[in-house]
From TrEMBL:
Protein name, per record: histidine kinase
InterPro entries (UniProt xref): CheY-like_superfamily, HATPase_C_sf, HATPase_dom, His_kinase_dom, HisK_dim/P_dom, HisK_dim/P_sf, PAS, PAS-assoc_C
KW Phosphoprotein (keyword) present: yes
Domain Response regulatory: residue ranges: 566-681
Enzyme class: transferase
Organism of this sequence: Sphingomonas floccifaciens
Alphabetical keyword list: Phosphoprotein
CDD domains: HATPase_CckA-like (cd16919), HisKA (cd00082), PAS (cd00130)
Catalyzed chemical reaction(s): ATP + protein L-histidine = ADP + protein N-phospho-L-histidine
Start and end residues of each PAC domain: 229-283
EC number: 2.7.13.3
């Protein structure tokens, strides 16, 4: 029923010129809900044909007039329109059917006709009308679809025109290449890059457009794009006149709805100015870098000169302090010896002990100063072992209480579960006593001296922030006072040699330097915290070690004499060699002398019996340790005692000494040397 009320093609126009046929038809159709209208003749009917007409219902008699007006009206229909005619014909006799006769007559005018032979029932008629009306509605639907398609084509054309306008306006070469490597789109920029118009590019192969050489440069990138990978290329692309041009080429794959790559978009950008800017910037950076390098070299030279100046100033301070102290000590030694020589020459020997004691004290002071210098320079000979720091401090308590004044309280706080520390026990004792004396002098009005131990774990992060400290466990010995403290500018100098805050004559300025050198040589560190008016805390960090059983069996004070054993003495200093030889002979040892390794090697290679070799470490040419290695080749069990005043390789005994080797540091007391020799020649105890 929709065709009867459609906005277009809903009318039925009727032309039946004889009798009441027209009115009867109108009433029949009106009764079925159709909008039916009657026209007297074919000319009037033709003038009424418009978009509202759905079907033309005519009787055969209506066509007996001139049909020019109808022909003109029907010819004027748009291409999509073909108004259906329902023609009521009269019954005929003979072989020609009525519908065939009518069709033949109207074939040149009406192309869409239904011929019904009268008489016809109302049902058949209305059915034919309905069929024709539906056919007419399909024509309107087709018209609408064609209109939509036309509008779409127009919009697409407008969009393509706009896209091309935009593409042609951009300073970028834009194209599309299909999977056969043929151009399917090209913008106007091809005229500038290839000197070809877009119409001369589209449809041609890439090789044909860019040439064999250009194709070889681009082929790998295009294959990658067809494989679905975005590609970026930078190539030189000079102008035709030879002017420089740098190109950035991008290939962006295009995928269909199924995900297959059917080609790729091409974008080429002129990056000449950008490359020039980058090159200019790189040149400026290189120029600036060279200038900075020159400036840094100049600064490094200036800093090196400053460091050298500071070093020379420190050396001057060091040598000046050493010269001052050694001159005082040598005055005591030389003066005492000179007076003794005069009195012996005069036969006055009753009061010589006083001068001998003065010379001995001055010599021992010189030995102490030398030990401090070696500790500061980290070249002293350390006998590093695992020691119990809590026990060592406990054994020093009485000595420290006698050292400090009565108005200073001593507080010792041993830390719980503190592991053994790896250090030289004698040097650690000296360091603690030095710090205790410094603390005492910093508290002229009294106060509290605290000595405590603890254990810390320094991790990699701390080590990274403090490069001179290795990560690991450390035993910390802290000596703290409540004295006057130090200002920050003084803290920066406390480890400098001969720097002291004490009045002239009350300190050498080597105490803290010795502590620092000892700690660093032991693999540790020293940290000082001080605040004026509050006090100072000095913390010695020493590597933690393992518990080692020690032999505490007391040794006899009397040095046993030898039993005629043979000792090879290798010493380049004649005075030291003389003294050691005389001592050995007094102790009933047989002595063989050699002034250096060259004289000692033939003796060691001979068949002469040798029970012990006593050798200086710092021999001219081959040193004492190298000589010991050669000696062990011929005499594997030969004990070796090294004498050292200073030897860089002997600084850490554990890594210097081999099996059945020992070391004694110059200057030494003759009794200490005799005891060490007797200890090394002592037969091993039975288990």
């Amino acid at each position: 029923m929709g065709h009867r009320t459609a906005p277009e093609g809903h009318r039925v126009i009727i032309c039946a010129p004889f009798g009441r046929d027209a009115e009867s038809l109108r009433m029949l159709l009106a009764g079925q809900g159709y909008d039916a209208q009657v026209f007297a003749d074919l000319a009037q009917l033709a003038s009424a044909i418009d978009a509202s007409v759905g079907v033309v219902l005519v009787t055969e008699e209506a066509f007996r007039v001139d049909m020019a007006a109808l022909r003109a009206r029907l010819d004027a229909q748009p291409a999509w329109s073909d108004i259906p005619f329902v023609i009521l014909s009269v019954r005929r006799t003979g072989s020609t059917r009525a519908d065939e006769a009518v069709r033949a007559k109207l074939s040149s005018i009406v192309g869409n006709a239904i011929v019904l032979e009268r008489p016809i029932g109302s049902a058949s008629l209305t059915s034919a009308i309905a069929s024709a009306m539906r056919s007419r509605q399909k024509q309107f639907e087709m018209r609408d679809r064609l209109s939509e398609l036309e509008r779409g084509r127009e919009a697409l054309a407008a969009s393509e025109a706009e896209l091309r306008l935009v593409a042609d306006s951009l300073p970028v070469l834009i194209g599309f290449i299909d999977s056969d490597l043929r151009y399917r789109f090209a913008n106007r920029a091809y005229e500038d890059w290839f000197y070809l118009s877009p119409k001369d590019v589209v449809g041609r192969s890439v090789r044909d457009v860019v040439g064999d050489e250009g194709f070889a440069v681009r082929e790998a990138g295009m294959r990658a794009a067809l494989a679905g990978e975005p590609v970026q290329l930078f190539i030189p692309w000079p102008h035709r006149d030879g002017r420089r041009r740098e190109a950035e080429i991008r290939y962006l794959p295009h995928k269909t709805a199924s995900g297959a790559v059917d080609g790729f978009h091409v974008f080429v950008l002129d990056v000449t100015e950008r490359r020039k800017t980058e090159e200019e910037l790189e040149a400026r950076v290189a120029e600036r870098t060279e200038a900075l390098t020159t400036e840094m070299d100049s600064r490094s030279k200036a800093e090196a000169a400053l460091r050298q100046s500071q070093k020379m100033e420190a050396v001057g301070q060091l040598t000046g302090g050493i010269a001052h102290d050694f001159n005082n000590m040598l005055t005591g030694v030389i003066g005492a010896l000179d007076i003794m020589r005069r009195r012996i020459a005069a036969g006055q020997i009753d009061d010589l002990d006083r001068f001998m004691d003065a010379a001995s004290k001055s010599a021992h002071r010189a030995a102490g100063l030398t030990a401090r210098l070696l500790a500061f320079s980290r070249r002293q000979s350390l006998d590093s072992k695992s020691i119990d720091a809590n026990r060592l401090i406990g054994e020093l308590e009485d000595l420290m209480r006698r050292t400090i004044r009565e108005n200073i309280s001593l507080r010792i706080v041993p830390g719980p579960d503190v592991p053994f520390a790896v250090a030289d026990a004698n040097q650690l004792e000296s360091a603690i006593l030095n710090l205790a004396i410094n603390a005492r002098d910093a508290m002229p009005d009294g106060g509290q001296l605290t000595i405590e131990t603890s254990v810390v774990e320094l991790d990699d992060a701390y080590s990274a922030a403090t490069p001179d400290v290795k990560p690991g466990r450390y035993v910390v010995v802290a000596v703290s006072d409540t004295g006057v403290g130090m200002a920050p500018e003084l803290l920066e100098k406390i480890f400098d040699p001969f720097f002291t805050t004490k009045p002239i004559g009350q300190g050498t300025g080597l105490g803290l330097s010795m502590v620092y050198g000892f700690a660093r040589q032991s693999g540790g560190q020293v940290r000082v915290h001080s605040q004026p008016g509050v006090g100072t805390s000095v913390k010695i960090y020493l590597p933690a070690g393992q518990v080692i059983e020690t032999d505490d069996t007391p040794r006899p004070d009397v040095v046993p004499e030898g039993r005629g054993q043979t000792v090879l003495l290798v010493e380049d200093d004649p005075s030291v060699r003389l003294l050691v030889r005389d001592l050995l002979e007094e102790l009933s040892y047989t002595t063989i002398e050699a002034e250096d390794a060259d004289h000692a090697i033939p003796i060691l290679a001979s068949d002469r019996p040798i029970d012990l070799m006593v050798s200086d470490v710092g021999l001219p040419g081959m040193n004492g340790r190298q000589l010991a290695e050669i000696a062990r080749q011929n005499r594997p069990a030969l004990p070796v005692l090294f004498l050292t005043g200073y030897a860089e390789n002997a600084a850490i005994r554990a890594g210097f000494l081999g099996t059945n080797m020992a070391m004694i540091t110059k200057p030494f007391a003759m009794d200490a040397l005799a005891g060490k020799i007797a200890e090394m020649l002592e037969p091993p105890r039975s288990a």
